[in-house]
Amino acid sequence: MGMPFFSAGTDPGSSLPEVLRRVGHDPFAMTGVMGSDHGLDIPHATTCVAVKYADGVVMAGDRRATSGNLISHRFMEKVVEADRYSAVAIAGAAGPAMEMVKLFQLQLEHYEKVEGQSLSLEGKANQLSGMVRSNLPAAMQGLVVVPIFAGYDLRRHTGRLWTFDVTGGRYEEREYVATGSGSLHAGTVMKVQLRADMDRSTAIDLVCRALWEAADADSATGGPDTLRAIYPVVAVIDSAGYQRIDDADLKTRYETIAAQSNR
What we know:
Layout: H1 16-22, E1 44-45, E2 48-53, E3 56-61, E4 65-67, E5 70-73, E6 79-83, E7 86-89, E8 92-93, H2 94-115, H3 121-134, H4 136-139, E9 148-153, E10 158-164, E11 170-173, E12 176-179, H5 183-193, H6 200-217, E13 233-238, E14 241-244, H7 247-261
Antiparallel strand pairs: 1-4, 1-8, 2-3, 2-12, 3-13, 4-5, 6-7, 7-9, 9-10, 10-11, 13-14
GO biological process, one term: proteasomal protein catabolic process
Pfam families: Proteasome (PF00227)
GO cellular component, one term: cytoplasm
């Protein structure tokens, strides 16, 4: 396919999904009936969390994907860098969620090239909201995608968090957010242990503890697996940008949590 050209009245502007629709490639078009209600066990991502701290935000997600009562994948990465200063954490139907994240990454890059500047953090949240809303026909057939969006706002010099519902509604959270099957347990841990003046290390410890407790109470949430060296994906986003915490650091933190839990 060559470069598409549009007249002044039909120019889709900097919206990549709209460009795709205009050339006949709607990224959210549904064909046929799908979902677990119709005999298909779709892999689902489970628990993701995010929390604000003094200098930014921390996001984390476990690594397990489930199909019904089976573990379909042990190494799934649910926290994905959207651009240098933002990230998306996914829960829900794994396939559509990953496709949505890829399209979102392309949309941010497309906007920057067309407009000559990066989209604001709130604008990014709005773009992701539109993509979640466009997925509503699939959600009605069981392929629900419920992401978390977080990043560092270069204009306000602070971290910010958003959660979404299946209709595309977006809601900014002031302190923390949890989504997925273990969100009740993870959210309770963060609510109880949250501190307004947390530093980076304390915030990382908090999301690790939240996922630990979620995995202990929710079979669909995967805990740290020392035998296979599988640990949650944990990322920090601050004025320096997106930084993923390495597994060696997480191993030490989870050893400390395990020691405290065995007392």
